[in-house]
Amino acid sequence: QNDGRLRLSRQGVIFKNSKTGKVDNIQASELAEGVWRRVALGHGLKLLTKNGHVYKYDGFRESEFDKLSDFFKAHYRLELAEKDLCVKGWNWGTVRFGGQLLSFDIGEQPVFEIPLSNVSQCTTGKNEVTLEFHQNDDAEVSLMEVRFYVPPTQEDGVDPVEAFAQNVLSKADVIQATGDAICIFRELQCLTPRGRYDIRIYPTFLHLHGKTFDYKIPYTTVLRLFLLPHKDQRQMFFVISLDPPIKQGQTRYHFLILLFSKDEDISLTLNMNEEEVEKRFEGRLTKNMSGSLYEMVSRVMKALVNRKITVPGNFQG
Fold first, then answer.
1. Most buried by CB count within 10 Å: which residue of 73, 92, 98, 256?
2. Strand partners, 261
3. What's an example GO BP annotation here (predicted)?
C-alpha cells in the first residue's frame, strides 16, 4: 500500500505518492474503464487504460460514489461501473487475463487479482502452474507463490497448462535470456538439486538447465561461495549459498552443491571480445583460459558474483 494524494481534473487523473514522490499521470483520453468496488479499506477505484495498464486507489467513502460517477460521466465520458468482489470462499473458478492483470473469477465476480509485473518465475508441472513473486523488502510478510490446478481438456492440440503459462510470461517481469551466454559448462554434476545440469553464465544471472528442472538464479541472490575438498582428496565441492533459495515443489534449496573431479580439465573461451573482457573483469578473467574444471567454474563465478570464495583454513579437527 502506498499513501498519497489523488487529484481528478478534466485533463486526467494524477496520483502523487507521499513516500517516494512518484507521480502517476493518466491522461483522460487514455482511460478505457472505471470500476467502483468495496475493498478492505472502504471503497476503491480501479482504472483501466487503453494500453492495458491498471491503476487501483483505495480509501474512498461510500458517499463519494455519486460525486465521482457524475464527474466521470461529464469529463471522461465514462460510466463508473459498480462491481462487487466475490466473497464465497470457493477455490475454483475461471482465470481471465486482461492487460497486466490475472483475475480469478467465480461467475462474473472477481475473487482476487494478480499484477503480472510482480511475477518473477512461472513453472509448469502436470496439470499445475506455479507463480513465484518478487519479494517485497518493505513488507514484514509477503506472498511468495500461488499455484493453480489446471484441469485437462478434451481439445486436441491445445495444452491448457502451456497456454496459461504463456499468458503469464508474456506480461511477467521474468529474467529473460537476451543475447548469448558468456560461457557454458556442460553436464556438471550437482548434488543438490541432484542431477546433471548445464550451467549457462549470463552477465546478471546463471541459468541451470537439467532434464526436469530449469532455474534462473540472479547473482544478487548469491550470498557466499565455498570451495571445499572432499575427504578422498580426489574431488572438490563448489557450494553456492542462496537467499532467497530456489524452490522445486515444497523443497527449498538454500545451497547449490556441485561436485568436481580434480583431474578433469577444460579449455574455456568467453563469448566476448578481449577489450570487453579486460574492461569488465579488469584482469580477473581472460578471453581464453584453461585449467581444471573446478578452478574455471569458481574463477568465473567469483568474477561475476563479485564475492570472495571461502576455502578451508589450517584448522585440524
1. 256
2. 235
3. DNA replication
